[in-house]
Amino acid sequence: MDRTARTPRGARTRAKLLTAAEEVFATVGYHEASIVKITEEAGVALGTFYTHFEGKKEIFDTVVLDLSQRVRHAMSEASTGVDDRLEAERAGFRAFFAFTAQHPALYRIIRQAEFVSPEVMRRHYDNIVDGYASGLESARSRGEIRDVDPVVAAWALMGAGELIGMRWVLWEDADAIPEAVYEGLMDVIRGALAPTTTAGTDPGNDEGRVR
Amino acid sequence: MDRTARTPRGARTRAKLLTAAEEVFATVGYHEASIVKITEEAGVALGTFYTHFEGKKEIFDTVVLDLSQRVRHAMSEASTGVDDRLEAERAGFRAFFAFTAQHPALYRIIRQAEFVSPEVMRRHYDNIVDGYASGLESARSRGEIRDVDPVVAAWALMGAGELIGMRWVLWEDADAIPEAVYEGLMDVIRGALAPTTTAGTDPGNDEGRVR
Amino acid sequence: MDRTARTPRGARTRAKLLTAAEEVFATVGYHEASIVKITEEAGVALGTFYTHFEGKKEIFDTVVLDLSQRVRHAMSEASTGVDDRLEAERAGFRAFFAFTAQHPALYRIIRQAEFVSPEVMRRHYDNIVDGYASGLESARSRGEIRDVDPVVAAWALMGAGELIGMRWVLWEDADAIPEAVYEGLMDVIRGALAPTTTAGTDPGNDEGRVR
Amino acid sequence: MDRTARTPRGARTRAKLLTAAEEVFATVGYHEASIVKITEEAGVALGTFYTHFEGKKEIFDTVVLDLSQRVRHAMSEASTGVDDRLEAERAGFRAFFAFTAQHPALYRIIRQAEFVSPEVMRRHYDNIVDGYASGLESARSRGEIRDVDPVVAAWALMGAGELIGMRWVLWEDADAIPEAVYEGLMDVIRGALAPTTTAGTDPGNDEGRVR
DNA sequence: GATGAATGAGTGTTCATTCAT
DNA sequence: GATGAATGAACACTCATTCAT
After folding, report:
1. Model confidence over D194-206: pLDDT tens digits?
2. Quick one: signal sequence residues (chains A, B, C, D) (predicted)?
3. What is the pTM of this model?
4. Which of A132, B60, C54, C196 has the fewest CB atoms in 10 Å of its CB?
């Protein structure tokens, strides 16, 4: 069955369901989220759900992918046009934390997704890392950062951002990350990427690059 | 009711259940793990489970806390007696990845725990971070690393390790982390912590330290 | 969740469940009555039960209250318009025994309800006694019966009816109470309430009336 | 297996179990009473239960029959040697209410027993009624009470006592029945049995006697 | 498109009973 | 006699999904 909304009414209902699903998934997680809860939150009848989605997993995937695109967009938007790499880092992470504060769903959901929908989970991480890694790659080629492996660095720094966000945005249920923490993280990132450093050997070439 | 095993036979059964639970949780996650699956895996009757555990959540918490202590122990064991901070980092992370390869359960489980058992989830992260942060703190006071905020740095670097481990150990279902990735991560960490660096302002004091 | 049937089909199913539940409760009692038995008896699927009732206790309460209202109605119906008090007694008890023979459920259930649902148990007895006591009260004020405490008398005579019904309707699994027993009971009641009697002090006032 | 206690220790354990069972049955009813609860209350191990009783039903029957004998004894004790029939009634009922206040178990249990153990339930009622009815019979033959059917009257008046006890001893959780209620009931009973009365026809013979 | 009643497989948990020690 | 670990059938209840209206 084709479930694309064919009428404005249908499109509206579908949108209500997606919003409700994000809310419910964020609040109680995938497994505790029942279709009944989602339809009640959306204000539609139970059966209506299946006019728009194949099942629970499909709406989950849709919500995750949607959120994933939106973070990615928010982050690249924020760093676009920023020439200095470190400034771009700052802007990107700030956008990431802001998004986290506004959409705890993504966070909470993605950490559940391992067993629910590994494919979309990986797509999400790959999406973000790809953008980040290519940014690092070009910064490296321009000599703005030191010679790190861009893919490894991208995963590592994304991981750093993830736990910091979990700890100081989600756990604190905060509207925004505390400035001191943000600066602390920036300090670490700056150190990790800083163009000149006496630490570490200088590989100076691409040998052994990951992927 | 007191569920402490009072006989050797009881202790043996309890241990079988814990091993089985770790396995089942790691394979299918908390929600898909049924008590039936666990008892079948353990080779005991369904009812026996309730002789030893209050319920599903209790065995989950026990498994998580147990694994948590074991990683922590493995990591501190590995870095104990290593004088050089960077060497200690290398050893700690190596132990972490080795543990991850051997006990994917911890990883998979912990990322589910947000909605299942937030308390133990936090205890786990706090446990690990505490040890890590105090190591950084004393290294900093000895001038072995630069003046980063130890708590923020600990969370950030643990996050780095977590995603790297997820990406290259779990997703690849590997026995160990690829050397190149490991070195890539070490390179990032070295940069982040390196004692001399031209990057960053030098706070040189404790103002604004987190927590 | 609102479980009111919203369609004729729903109402029909709900009714089938109530009838089945009365039957099952009467046959095996509350604790041996399983939801499976009830739904099988009703010819619907297990899950359907929960579309209409919150749980086992709710359907129990509903059945009890329903039966309670029906006996009360049958009894007051029977004695309505009967001028003579003793005749009214006869009619009321006759209706009571007839109801008992037709709905053993009420009897059997109510005697279980102490631990299952004390509230509805009390509501049932209070319901019946209230009607009975006010009948006695007005008969007394008209001098048709002697000066007994109407509330105490109502409880006492209801108890008399209850055990007689239990002994000669339920235990004998009879369609109706044997005439001789019925007359024997009426004889006792007549004596207890008879307007002229040499027995007993004549309080002649309301002092010490119960409740 | 013969479960008669063969040693003083065994007899003591058995007694502890019986006391515990009465307590537990009275508090939570038959179905909610688990063997574990009973053995815990008795302070013995679970398995020990089965050295003394065949199963849950057996201990239930034992407790009921034991209590039944004890009420009967208390009641006949109280009225023994009382010459006047009405005085004997007063004494018997007083003893009954006192027993009820002290052993709510009997009441609560007996009303459950319909589905648990119909045989002992009937034995209990038969026991009590037999004694009562034969008392009435001989009083009648001596002309102390009027010519009621002794069996029917015994059941009826026992029912009266039962509900009065339920209402004013159990429901009020009282130590004793309120005097006014007791006198109210006595008043009803006196009327029902009083030797001279203008009410009722005088059967004057045994025709149609029940049983 | 929208509705909500119906379905039934599956879950966590309880508990009377057995039995090796 | 006493102990407590082990057993497994049974239960109340949930929920993704279907389908007649």
Report:
1. 886 444 444 444 5
2. none
3. 0.89
4. C196
